[in-house]
Amino acid sequence: MSGFSVSRRLFWPFWSRRATAQNESSPLIPKEGSADDEESLYGPPADDDSAEPQRDVEESQGSSRSDPHPKSFRPCNRRSSCRSASDHCLKGLVFLSNLLFSVLGMVVLCLGLWGLITKESFAQERIGSIGTDPMLVFVTLGSLLSALCLSGCVGALRENGCLLRCFSAAVLALIAAQVLAAIVAFGLRGEVEGHLRTALLAAMARYQDDLDLRFIVDEIQAGLQCCGADDYRDWEVNIYYNCSAPGALACGVPATCCVAPLENGTVWNSQCGVGARLLDVFSAQSVVFLGGCLGETSRWVQRHAGAIGAAAIVALAVQILTLSATTRLLDAIQWHKATGGRHPCRA
User: Fold this and answer.
1) Do 258 and 219 reside in the same domain of the chain?
2) pLDDT of residue 132
3) Which range of residues forms the domain containing residue 38?
4) pLDDT value for 10
5) Is the Cα torsion angle 145, 150, 156, 162 positive or negative in sign?
6) Which helix (H) or strand (E) holds 36?
C-alpha cells in the first residue's frame, strides 16, 4: 500500500498538467482556471485510496459551478442563427404561394389584354361599349390578383412589414367580401336570379355582334342543353332571330339549341334551328331544347351542391392559411427587429 502511494506522488504532476490542458482547450470551462487554483480548492492530494474518488466528484462539481452557460444553452453570436426553422418555412411558404398566384394573375391579365387587342375593342367605334366587354373582367381580375400577390411575394422576400400588412389587410377584406357575397346570394336568391336573367338576355341580344358573348352563350346552351333564359322563345330579343327580321334566321334559334346539331353525326349543321319557333311545342321539342338556361342552371347547382361547397371551403381555407402564415411571419419579423436578434437559443 505504501508503494502505491509513493508512485501516485511521483506521477501526480503529470496528471495535474493533463487536466489543466483539458480545461484550457474546453470551451465550456473558464480558461483562467489553473492547477494551483484547483489544488487550493481541493487541497493537496491525499495518501489513501479513498480520497481519489472523492476528489473526482468534487472536481466534477467544481467544473459545473464554474460553467456560466450550460452545454445545451448558449447565447447566439449572429442574428441569423437565432431564427428558428419555422420562421424560414413561413417565409418560403408565403413567398412561393404568392409567386404562384402572381404568375396566374399575369396569365389572366395577358389573356384579357390579348382578347381586347384581337377584337380591336380600343377602336374609336367600339370604345363606347368596352365597359360591357367580357375580356374586361379578365383584365380587372388579373390586375388585382397580380398586384395583391406581388405585394405579398416582395414583402416576404424582403421582409418588408408595410407590404406584408397591406397584403394581410387585402386578403382579410377579400375573405370578408366572399363570405358576405355568399350570405347575400343565399338570402336574396330571387334578386340574384333576376340579375342573371337580365344579363343573359343582354348577351342574347348582342349574340351576333360580340364574339365573346356568343361563345359564352353557346357554351351555356350546349353544356346545359337549354335554350334562352326562361325558354326558347326568349330569342325574340335578338334582331336577327326576331320573327320580323328579313333574314333567313327569322323565328329561329342558334344551332346550340338543337337537340341534334350534327348532321349524320359528323357535320355541324348551323341551320338546324331555322324556323324552330314557327313550330308548335310538340313538334319543336324534337328539334330544339325548350327549357331555359336559368332553370337548368338552378338544377345543375342543386345536383352539384356538395362539390361546389367543398371547392368553396377549400378556397376559403387556402386564403385563411395564407393570412395566418403572413401574420405569423410579420410577427416574427417585428420581433427580430425589436430585439436585434440577440436572444438565447438552443445549441
Assistant:
1) yes
2) 63
3) 1-48
4) 45
5) negative
6) helix 35-42
